[in-house]
Amino acid sequence: MNFKMPTSYLNAKELSFQVVLNIVVFIFFAFDRRLPGIEFHKVFFFLNYALAALIINYALLPRYLYKNRYLEFTVYTTLVVAIVIFVEEAFLEQIFYPDTRGKKFLGVFYNLLSTMPTITILVGFKFAWDALIKQREVLELRNSVKESELQFLKSQINPHFLFNNMNNLYSYAVEQSPKTPEIILELSDALRYMLYEGRASFVSLKKEIEHIKNYVNLSKLQIKGRGEVSFKIGHIPSNYRIAPLILTVFIENAFKHSSSSQTNNITIAIDTAVDSNGILHFTCINNYLEQSNTKNLDNGIGLDNVRKRLTLIYPNSHNLDIKTENDNYIVSLTIDLSKTQEQ
Fold first, then answer.
1. 33 pLDDT above the threshold of 80
2. I want to staple 249 with a disulfide (CB 3.0 to 4.6 A). Which of 9, 115, 149, 302 is the partner?
3. 198 within a domain of the structure (yes/no)
4. What is the per-residue pLDDT for 91?
């Protein structure tokens, strides 16, 4: 996702900015409240300063300062300022103030005091302009990296999901179970949602809950006759959105770990609802046998994936708590959907 403006537009915008800036600075430079009006000869003095600022802004800043070549920048900037003072002393002062030339013992020092503020203002605004442009580029790059990482994390979900369900489909097909067409249909609906809705940054919460219902129905077939699965859906407003496939990972892990650690008495309880403040409350609890091969329940591609996605999509807007208690694996997740609604 790239929102970078065309270079020609940026140049035109900066040109307009520089024109306005120079006009404003010239007015402040040339205006004398004791003598209302602007003396024409001050245009030449200001052009001397503006030309120096132009050299510093578009030659010395990008070539030396922005490349951390500070000594060279200092030397060349000092040289430019010296040339400005020389032009003012040797030519402009002689032309416009011939009677006062040579009478000021500290003339060079006075010229430096009048030269530096104007040049500093012109260069300072250019430096600030470049800093803002660089800040915007960094922000765009950060957003691009974030979007790329999110797309990569999403791409990991489909293979993970397929790996965990194709074996189940294969076993039913081998047994020539009448449930095979149903499984294929449920799997097709789930994959369709992942391929199309899953591409979006956010989807309707109601659509996501409907997908989860289909996913749970598909997963129930894996433990048919071996336990119970409950899925409670509380208040789900129609106006909230959520990042797709966030909740599915926890449900997938619940079925995987429960079914792999025990043969019977599998219990999985899923509960989701949105409160009046727009906070999504999601819990997923599954039992397991501690002596089984599920010692590292909080590890794996799926959970690591979803943690990264939550951090990227809902920074400071979510709370994920995963714990084990009395042979139960408990996932509690809250997400402030109201902030997503504001985006």
1. no
2. 302
3. yes
4. 84
Q: Which of 49, 48, 50, 74 is nearest to 60 (CA)?
A: 74
Contact criterion met (CB below 8 Å) for 254 and 268: yes
Same domain, yes or no: 226 and 290: yes
As given in the structure block, the two tokens for residue 237 are 């407003």
Task: Answer yes or no: are the C-beta atoms of 302 and 253 closer than 8 Å.
Answer: yes
CATH no. for residue 243?
3.30.565.10
Q: How far apart are the first and last CA of the chain?
A: 16
Q: Is residue 197 part of a domain?
A: yes
- 195 with 121, same domain? no
Q: Judge if 124 and 207 occupy the same domain.
A: no
- Could you give the C-alpha distances from 237 to 231, 243, 298, in angstroms and in order? 18, 15, 31
Question: What is the pTM assigned to this prediction?
Answer: 0.56
Residue-range definition of the domain harbouring residue 305: 177-342
- Asked whether the beta carbons of 194 and 227 are under 8 A apart, the reply is no
* Residue 245 binned pLDDT confidence (cut-offs 50, 70, 90): confident
* pLDDT for 269 beyond 90: yes
Share of the chain above pLDDT 90, in %: 34
Domain finish residue from 109, 138, 167: 138
Backbone angles phi, psi at 231, to 5 degrees: -135, 105
Predicted confidence (pLDDT) at residue 114 exceeds the cutoff of 60 = yes
CA distance 317 to 310: 9
Rounded Cα gap, residues 290 and 150, in angstroms? 34
Interval 75-87 mean pLDDT: 92
Give the list of residues 6+ apart from residue 46 with CB closer than 8 angstroms, or none.
25, 26, 29, 30, 118
- Contact in structure between 272 and 241 (CB atoms under 8 Å): no
Residue 320: count other Cβ atoms within 10 Å of its Cβ.
17
Length of the chain: 343
How many angstroms separate the CA atoms of 326 and 235, rounded?
29
**Do 33 and 117 belong together in one domain?**
yes
Residue 215, token pair as written in the block: 């996913």
